[in-house]
Design a protein that fits this description.
By secondary structure, the protein is mainly α. The chain has one domain: Globins (Globin-like). It is built from eight helices and no strands. It is globular. The N and C termini lie far apart (38 Å).
């Protein structure tokens, strides 16, 4: 089923296009963009493309860190995840994916929510002591 999704949506080229549009939105968003300051955008796009391509069942291999470890040092709330998820949905629509493909993509993406979100700032501060922590409060104007 997942491999079928990779080919049904148009393969690597479409996944790359989605991530290009998606990261345009992320880097323009007043809250999300702060999590990406001083990071190589092309590298992030390529990693996300490889990750999702692998999850969609392609032969593309993702060689980065698992989501839990890649985001360990970031305090990511459910709200922040939902903002990101909404931007992804906008990108999928803009690229022109069919509704059923959008739903399947978003379901696969949402499966990783519990790997990267945090329930408690106190617990985050106690358990994640070996990285520089990133905790960017939601701007008042959003």
């Amino acid at each position: 089923m997942k491999a079928k999704l990779f080919y049904e949506i148009g393969g690597l080229e479409i996944i790359q296009k989605v991530h290009e549009v998606f990261y345009d939105k992320v880097y323009a968003h007043e809250w999300l963009k702060k999590y990406f300051e001083n990071h190589n955008r092309l590298l992030i796009e390529n990693q996300q493309t490889a990750f999702m391509s692998e999850k969609f069942g392609s032969k593309v291999s993702y060689v980065g860190r698992p989501p839990r470890y890649a985001h360990l040092h970031m305090f990511i709330t459910d709200e922040l995840f939902e903002v990101r998820h909404a931007l992804l949905k906008e990108a999928l629509i803009e690229v022109g994916l069919r509704q059923d493909h959008i739903a399947r993509w978003l379901n696969i993406d949402a499966a990783f929510k519990h790997h990267i979100t945090n329930d408690s700032l106190e617990l985050f501060n106690v358990t994640h002591t070996f990285h520089k922590k990133i905790n960017i409060p939601k701007p008042d104007f959003l």
